[in-house]
């Protein structure tokens, strides 16, 4: 697989992390499902000498992200469209995992939990 070869060259040149995506630049349309890009991150991570990888591709929940990391399929989760849908996704993901995170100082008084937001809507 040519992408593993190039990832190996990048690792040798000092690249620390590869943000892995098929990019959607071919005429072939991939099967799209939650985490559909994660296997590519896993292949590059294991095939290119253990270079760190970031996984993308319909990662939408905290549990899904945590599972990817715990399985060792990637070293970092990159969130895209889900952050457009929920700009407070880090807080939402933390809540899904049973963790409470403190709001940044600039958000004091404007940091609502999911239950409060649902009640407003």
From TrEMBL:
Q: So which cofactors does this thing need?
A: FMN
Q: Which GO terms describe its molecular function?
A: FMN binding; NADP binding; NADPH dehydrogenase activity
The name this protein goes by in its record: NADH:flavin oxidoreductase / NADH oxidase family protein
Q: Where is the NADH:flavin oxidoreductase/NADH oxidase N-terminal domain?
A: 10-97
Q: Which Pfam families match?
A: Oxidored_FMN
Against PANTHER family, the record matches this protein to: NADPH DEHYDROGENASE C23G7.10C-RELATED
Task: Give the keywords, sorted.
Answer: Flavoprotein, FMN, NADP, Oxidoreductase
């Amino acid at each position: 697989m040519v992408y593993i070869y190039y990832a190996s060259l990048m690792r040798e040149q000092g690249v620390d992390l590869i943000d892995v995506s098929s990019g959607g630049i071919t005429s072939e349309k991939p099967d799209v499902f939650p985490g559909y890009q994660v296997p590519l991150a896993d292949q590059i991570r294991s095939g290119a000498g253990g270079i760190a990888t970031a996984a993308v591709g319909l990662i939408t929940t905290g549990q899904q992200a945590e599972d990817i990391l715990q399985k060792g399929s990637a070293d970092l989760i990159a969130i895209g469209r889900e952050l457009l849908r929920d700009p407070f996704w880090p807080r939402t993901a933390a809540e899904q995992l049973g963790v409470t995170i403190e709001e940044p100082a600039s958000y004091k008084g404007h940091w609502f939990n999911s239950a409060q937001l649902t009640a407003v809507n």
